[in-house]
Amino acid sequence: MTVLELIDKRFTKQPLLQVEGLKTYYPIQRGVFSKAAGFIRAVDDVNLQLYEGETVGLVGESGCGKSTLGRSIVRLEESNSGRILFQNQDITHYSQRQLKAVRTQIQMIFQDPYASLNPKIRIYDALAEPLLVHNLVKRSEVQKEVEQLLHLVGLPRTARDRYPHEFSGGQRQRIGIARAISFRPKLIVCDEPVSALDVSIQAQILNLLQDLQEELKLTYLFIAHGIGAVKQISTRIAVMYLGKIVELAPTEELFRRPKHPYTKLLLQAYPQPDPTLRKLKKLVIQGDVPSPANPPHGCRFHTRCPYVQERCQKEEPVLTTNQHGVACHYPLT
Ligand SMILES: Nc1ncnc2c1ncn2[C@@H]1O[C@H](COP(=O)(O)OP(=O)(O)O)[C@@H](O)[C@H]1O
Ligand SMILES: [Mg+2]
Q1: Cα(194)–Cα(58) distance, rounded to whole angstroms?
Q2: Which of 76, 165, 245, 303 is buried most deeply by CB count within 10 Å?
Q3: Residue minimizing CA distance to atom 12 of ligand 1
Q4: Could you identify the atom of ligand 1 that is nearest to the CA of residue 62?
Q5: For residue 88, what pLDDT is reported?
Q6: Residue 194 Cα, ligand 2 centroid: separation in angstroms?
Q7: Does 115 reside within a domain?
Q8: Which pLDDT belongs to residue 53?
Q9: What letter would DSSP give residue 296?
Q10: For residues 3 and 45, what is the distance between their CA atoms, to the nearest angstrom?
């Protein structure tokens, strides 16, 4: 999808997913019976919309809340406040029973598919079982469906009789993808699905995800910690820092004209500098990521920002809602 088509869609279409003011905190427990001694603000007031057919890349350093945001969207994590709307339905507080119907439409792919595969169960059964449990196909059609799924993700037919440990990392991720798409979802949250794979395999899996997106009309939230990893696949990129989205823009635009100093720093770390990238003065990132249990006042990035000014220490910037959103008092020009 081109950026223009995307903008067009924004005016004509309702988003598939709307995340509004979402907060997901983890209590810090001191003793077994004591009350929470504080909270880790893993996701702290996130607003994000996903349009049908697009891929939003979600990037940021480890611990900034990407997985928690993904898990909150698929409702594996209970949020403290805010709303999640899927196809205009507010699913934020759906009960397990109500969620059953939605669960098939919102799937998640993990970094380590092995963890979610039972080592004692053959691939055929691992794929067939959810199809039957969720009444997705008739019993008489399960076998054909499993074969079709294996074909779609590029695995041989013989894979059906093998066990998870008999596959390589890349093949296991293909099984994870087959499982996710077997539900015929509309949205898939991909949480670092290629981070643990060899570089050559990464490209194959990314290509597979892109092909499936087109074929099955999927929408992706694609999580990665490096910005380079999402360039190929994303229509837009959201940059997260300490529980907040600090910049959100169409991919090309973000690479060409980063507005947040943090984004600029992430782009510098991108191993193959893009020739179209504006000449950037080398910046040096200072210090460590502060604790999400006690984030800095004002702009959360101010303790590490090379451009910090007085205002940044006091006043928290909000993400602008234009096409190239940025949360910074002094965005780069
Ligand atoms: N189940 C949990 N219980 C307590 N703290 C958690 C839990 N999961 C994540 N966290 C904390 O929340 C913050 C965000 O984590 P996470 O969402 O995993 O970040 P990312 O995926 O960007 O690396 C981190 O400080 C992490 O330690
Ligand atoms: Mg993570």
Answers
A1: 14
A2: 245
A3: 42
A4: 23
A5: 94
A6: 12
A7: no
A8: 95
A9: P
A10: 26
Cβ atoms of residues 177 and 116 within 8 Å: no
Residue (of 262, 203, 261, 254) closest to 233 by Cα position: 203
**Is residue 77 included in any domain, yes or no?**
yes
CATH number at residue 258: 3.40.50.300
Please provide the DSSP assignment of 87-116 as one string. TTEE-TT--HHHHHHHHTTEEEE-S-GGGG
Contact in structure between 92 and 56 (CB atoms under 8 Å): no
Torsions phi, psi of 41, nearest 5?
-85, 75
Closest C-alpha to ligand 1, atom 20: 63
Q: pTM to 2 decimals?
A: 0.92
The two tokens of residue 125 are 């059964």
Asked if residue 29 belongs to a domain, the reply is yes
| Bridge partners of residue 48, in order along the sequence | 19
Write out pLDDT tens, residues 54-68.
999 999 999 999 999
* Cα–Cα distance for residue pair 36/25, rounded to 1 Å: 11
> For the chain, how many helices (H) and strands (E)?
11, 11
Do 8 and 20 form a contact (C-beta atoms < 8 A)?
no
Q: Please state the atom number of ligand 1 nearest to the C-alpha of residue 292.
A: 25
- Residue pair 42/243 in contact by the 8 Å Cβ criterion: yes
Ligand 1, pocket-test mutation among 22, 26, 110, most atoms within 8 A of CB: 26
Q: Give the per-residue pLDDT at 281.
A: 55
Question: Which residues are placed with Cβ below 5 angstroms of ligand 2, an ion?
Answer: 67
Residue at 269 is within a domain:
yes
The per-residue pLDDT for 239 is: 98
CA atoms within 13 A on the CB side of 147: 6
The count of domains in the chain is: 1
Structural domain harbouring 42: 3-105+191-196+213-326
Q: Say how far apart CA 272 and CA 232 lie, in whole Å.
A: 13
Low-confidence ranges of the chain (pLDDT < 70): 1-12, 271-284
Tokens 């406040």 sit on residue:
81
